[in-house]
Amino acid sequence: MAQHLSGSCQCGAVRFLVSGKIQGFFLCHCSRCRKDTGSAQAANMFVTEAAIEWLSGVDSVRTFRIADTRHAKSFCMTCGSALPRAHAGGPAVVVPAGSIDGPLGLRPTAHIFSASRADWDDHLEEVPRFDGPPEPINPARPSPRD
């Protein structure tokens, strides 16, 4: 069954619709995906038999490819947000999960390239959680933990 995913970039210049079958939703820990996101992993869906319809801003979409690899990242040239791209390894479209507007209604399928994960990406469920930003750190004021 084909799914339809609509999304946009952070600044709103680029809007898209991806149609196709979600084959996998992976959290990739490879060093290239960590560099792409500046985080512990990239969260990407692989959609097969897919079509991307650029609803607006296609002229703002750029793709960076690492020579002699299948690795690429598409992004908005205004705000830098990750955007969908055709996967060099086959007939799929890679859709960054964070680019989708609204709920996805599915969970990741697997963590991949776990052997490459960042050394600080361990037991993150133990790190404190906040519903908003943490209290600003002010060296002149004692921490609530002091």
CATH topology: Metal Binding Protein, Guanine Nucleotide Exchange Factor, Chain A
List the domain count as a whole number.
1
One letter per element, helices H and strands E, the order comes to: EEHEEEEEEE
User: How many beta-strand elements?
Assistant: 9
Category by helix and strand content: mainly beta
Quick one: overall form? globular
Mean pLDDT: 88
Radius of gyration: 18 Å
Please render the helix and strand layout as text.
Layout lengths: L2 E6 L6 E14 L2 H7 L4 E15 L4 E5 L6 E5 L5 E2 L1 E2 L5 E5 L13 E3 L34
Parallel strand pairs: 2-9
Antiparallel strand pairs: 1-2, 2-3, 3-8, 4-5, 5-6, 7-8
What is the structure about, briefly put?
The strands form 2 sheets. Strands 1, 2, 3, 7, 8 and 9 form a 6-stranded mixed β-sheet that branches. The chain has 1 helix and 9 strands; from the N terminus they run ββαβββββββ.
What does this structure look like?
This protein is mainly beta. The protein has a single domain (3-118), classed as Metal Binding Protein, Guanine Nucleotide Exchange Factor, Chain A, CATH 2.170.150. It has one helix at residues 31-37; strands spanning 3-8, 15-28, 42-56, 61-65, 72-76, 82-83, 85-86, 92-96, 110-112. It starts with a strand and ends in a 34-residue tail after the last strand.
